[in-house]
Design brief:
Blueprint: H1 3-13, H2 18-30, H3 34-47, H4 53-64, H5 68-85, H6 88-99
């Protein structure tokens, strides 16, 4: 069974499962389906705005699509959240991604 199908099944059982939804976004991005990846990451953040890892992946997906302003805003929002959460490692990764735009 492929991973996308498995993750969709997990989400049918528990639509609030942020990890499975985030992992689904990773799978879509890996498959080159940036539009679905972005939609999936946006849904993670709509349901769970504190799911920090999503900001990096969503920003990178925007960047891959050439949506640099959206990428910039997403990385910045992630930096602010990482600072509030005291996560210096993720903050650093997001800051580096922002500086590379």
């Amino acid at each position: 069974m492929d991973r996308i199908k498995t993750l969709l099944e997990f989400l049918s059982v528990d639509p609030e499962d942020s990890f499975s939804r985030y992992a689904l976004g990773l799978e879509y991005r890996s498959a080159g389906d940036l539009e679905r990846a972005i939609e999936t990451y946006q849904e993670v953040l709509r349901r769970d705005p504190d799911y920090l890892a999503t900001y990096y992946q969503l920003g990178k997906a925007y960047q891959d699509q050439g949506q640099m302003e959206s990428a910039r805003a997403t990385f910045q929002a992630g930096i602010e959240l990482a600072s509030r959460q005291g996560d210096s490692h993720t903050r650093s990764e997001l800051a580096e991604a922002l500086s590379e735009l």
